[in-house]
Every structure is written in structure tokens, then in C-alpha cells.
Design a protein that fits this description.
With 437 residues, the chain is α+β, with helices and mostly antiparallel strands. Helices cover 56% and strands 8% of the residues. The strands form 2 sheets. Strands 4-5-3-6-7 form a 5-stranded mixed β-sheet, sandwiched between helices. The two termini are 31 Å apart.
Length: 437
């Protein structure tokens, strides 16, 4: 194998600086306990999740990427609003809106704090820092800034402006609505609850400190009305519920459109998009991308022997083994029929060869318990692997190379991994693979 002659692959890194484990790449793959697949498909399994599980679960990597794109958009809008806030102290001073000495210090402190926060988050998003947690932090800061603006009214001895505000209070809904762009219902829940609790704290603080003035009212801000305040709290909770519902429904619809119904793997359309995305990302990081085309050997014969139900169970078993065999950052797809495709970002030839050879052995050792059949069934796979940019200048051409090597693996006797243009006796299995059916 010429792949063994290449230098050792460097530690794998992604854009936020996290290292990906590679020490166990060449080890045996996890065992699969079968029978694996029950009745129904991926869509039915997704629909059977409990309500809280549908809300409180981490989004898929593909949706997490889409959510980070939403975070980038929100960061830009946040920065624009923070810049516009610079004019607030000027307007307050010019219109003589402050009582007493007209101290602008709390207003200036709030505006500076909002601008600094907006700049820091925007810079972090641009550098792809904290992809896993920045949505939580920025959302909570957003609602806290709205609450902080209401608290400034209390500091300035304007309690009715805090409780009856028609200018600042609606920004809660902007902050809560923006959480839906992150495709993470957990962020919607936490942000909505935090906004509600903070607003209740503002109301309670105003009533405890300025109860008589609140009930007396003022020409500018009206009177304090408890029913109105309860209504405002209910509106915040309702907005949070709508944001959660929108995210869950959009996430499920998007997931179903991205996934193969039988196996739950990503489909070919997603594969094509992710292929280009991983090429652009790996080019920025100066890292290779390994690609593999995997095909079940003699699958038609397997179907003829065990029926389409047995074939479906075999494909689901192979899909689960594939998911267990690769990292969360890898892209595992059902390319079509009995063919699968895998993208391994940041993985060079040595590690890729070990990974797919271990996969081939695990599939060969897999035993399937099929309904109505006393003996277990087995299957094997042929795999063609290519590395970009080592094997082709364009990543789409590297995929063509991997597909041609899959064809050579079939020609060479099946149940083998082909990593070079000319398969040799050392590539993959050389003997002993029984083809089912």
C-alpha cells in the first residue's frame, strides 16, 4: 500500500481550535448487537420521541452549522443597534428627560457596556470561537441588556418608565425571536425564562421602592396597573413558547428532508452540499479530506434470498455500524440504494486507510438475525477511498477517484478496500469472504 509510505497525519483540528481524537482510529470498531432494527423507519422513530426530548436535545451538526450562520446574522444586527444607542445619551440630554441633576452616568455606562458586548460577540463569531456555547451566552446577554435598560430607569428615579415602557420592553421579543435563528430549542427555553424572571424582578423592585408613585401615575408614563404587568409577563412566556415550537417544527422538517427515511443517515443532497463546505473549510485550515464510497457486495442476491425486509434490516444494521465507526464531525450518508458515502474532514491517508480497513473487517464479522431464519446472515462491503487534494485538484474529482476505486474493489474480488489506482494483494481482504445469497 502506498498509503503506508506517507508521513504520519497531524492531529486533527476544527476551526474553533478543538482537537479531535485520533489515537483509536486503527483500533477495532465497536461491536453491534443485533437484531438491530425494529419495525418502522427513521421518521416514525423521530415522531415517537417525548415532547421534552424533542425540545431538550442537541441539534444535529448540520443544523448546528445553520444555527451558527444565524448567530453571525444576529451579531451584525446587535452591533448595528449598539452603534445606534450611542445617540441615546445625546437625545436624553438635549430633550432634558432626566429628573433632578440630570446625571447621564448610568445611561452612558449602559450604552458603553452594550457596545463592548456587541463588539466582543461579533469578533468571536467572526473567528468561529465557542460554536457550542456562544448562542447560549449571547442570547442571555441580549435579554439582560433589555432588563439592564429598564433598570437604568429605576436608577434614574423613573419607576413608571421602567414598568410602563413602550420603547424598551418590545426589545425582549426581538431577543426571544432571534433565538429561533439558532436552531436550538434549549436556547429558546433558557432565554425566555431568563427574560421573564428578569422582567418580574424589575416590576417587583419598582413596586417595593416606589409603590406610592406607581399608583399615583404620571402624565408621561401613565399609572401602574397590575393586570397590565401580568399580561406582559404572559406575553413573554407565550413568545418563548412560540420560539421553541418554531425551532422544533423547523428542525424536524429540515431533519426529515436531510435524512434517509430507512437508515436515518444523511441523504445525497446533503452530501453534495457538505462536500463543498468541507473542501472550503479544509482549504482554510490546510488539512486533507478523505472520501470513501462503500457498496454492499451482492446485495441483489441478498434481497433475493432474504426478501426486501431482510435487505432493509441489513442496510439499517450497516448504517448503525457506520455511525458508530466515525466521529460526529464526519459526514456519513446513504448515497443511493446499497451505496454509502463518507467524508472525513482533516484525516489523511494513513488514518483513513486504518479506519476503513477496520470497518471492512467489522462488517465481515457482523451477523444479522432475520425474522423467520434460524441461521444468521452476513454481508461484506467493498470500499474505494481517495484523499483530497492528494488524489485530485478538485474535491469533486476526488470523489470520482473514490468511486473508480470502488469499482476496482468490485473487480478485484469484493470485500476489500482499494486506496490506490491499482489494487494489490495487500489492499483489503485477500480471501475468505463469503458473500450472502
Amino acid at each position: 500500500m502506498d498509503s503506508h509510505a506517507s508521513p504520519a497525519d497531524p492531529p486533527l483540528e476544527v476551526e474553533d481550535g478543538r482537537s479531535l481524537p485520533t489515537s483509536s482510529v486503527g483500533s477495532s470498531l465497536p461491536e453491534v448487537s443485533l437484531p438491530l432494527a425494529e419495525e418502522g423507519d427513521y421518521a416514525a422513530q423521530a415522531a415517537s420521541e417525548r415532547a421534552w426530548e424533542r425540545v431538550w436535545k442537541r441539534p444535529d451538526p448540520q443544523l448546528a452549522d445553520a444555527g451558527f450562520t444565524g448567530e453571525y446574522l444576529i451579531a451584525g444586527v446587535r452591533l448595528l443597534i449598539a452603534v445606534l444607542l450611542i445617540y441615546v445619551p445625546l437625545g436624553v440630554h438635549r430633550l432634558d428627560l432626566l429628573p433632578g441633576s440630570g446625571n447621564l452616568t448610568p445611561v452612558l455606562a449602559f450604552v458603553v457596556g452594550a457596545l463592548v458586548e456587541a463588539l466582543l460577540v461579533y469578533s468571536a463569531v467572526q473567528r468561529h470561537w465557542g460554536r457550542a456555547w456562544i448562542g447560549f451566552v449571547s442570547s442571555m446577554i441580549d435579554v439582560s441588556l433589555v432588563s439592564g435598560a429598564l433598570a437604568v430607569f429605576l436608577i434614574l428615579d423613573l419607576p413608571l418608565a421602567a414598568t410602563n415602557s413602550t420603547l424598551v420592553y418590545p426589545f425582549y421579543f426581538l431577543a426571544i425571536g432571534a433565538t429561533s435563528l439558532r436552531y436550538d430549542a434549549r436556547i429558546c427555553v433558557l432565554t425566555g425564562l431568563l427574560a421573564t424572571l428578569q422582567y418580574v424582578a424589575v416590576i417587583v423592585s419598582a413596586y417595593v421602592g416606589w409603590g406610592a408613585r406607581l399608583l399615583q401615575g404620571s402624565p408621561e408614563f401613565g399609572r401602574f396597573n397590575l393586570e397590565d404587568q401580568v399580561g406582559r409577563v404572559v406575553l413573554l412566556l407565550a413568545a418563548s413558547w412560540l420560539a421553541v415550537t418554531a425551532v422544533v417544527r423547523a428542525r424536524e422538517a429540515t431533519t426529515l428532508s436531510m435524512r434517509d427515511r430507512l437508515t436515518g443517515l444523511l441523504n445525497r443532497g446533503v452530501f453534495d452540499v457538505r462536500l463543498q463546505e468541507e473542501a472550503e473549510r479544509s482549504e482554510r485550515l490546510d488539512q486533507p479530506v478523505s472520501l470513501a464510497m462503500i457498496d454492499v457486495d451482492h446485495f441483489k442476491s441478498f434481497n433475493d434470498t432474504h426478501g426486501h425486509e431482510g435487505g432493509d434490516r441489513a442496510l439499517r444494521a450497516l448504517a448503525e455500524l457506520l455511525l458508530r465507526s466515525f466521529r460526529a464531525s464526519d459526514v456519513v450518508t446513504r448515497y443511493g440504494g446499497e451505496e454509502f458515502a463518507v467524508i472525513l474532514p482533516g484525516m489523511g491517508s494513513n488514518l483513513a486507510w486504518e479506519r476503513f480497513e477496520a470497518l471492512r473487517r467489522s462488517v465481515e464479522e457482523l451477523r444479522l438475525e432475520l425474522r423467520g431464519v434460524e441461521e444468521t446472515a452476513s454481508m461484506t462491503v467493498s470500499i474505494g477511498v481517495a484523499v483530497w487534494p492528494q488524489d485530485a485538484a478538485q474535491i469533486q474529482d476526488a470523489l470520482v477517484v473514490a468511486d473508480s476505486r470502488l469499482y476496482k474493489a468490485k473487480q478485484g474480488g469484493r470485500n476489500r478496500v482499494v486506496f490506490t489506482s491499482e489494487p494489490t494483494a495487500t489492499e483489503g481482504a485477500t480471501e475468505g469472504a463469503k458473500i450472502p445469497g
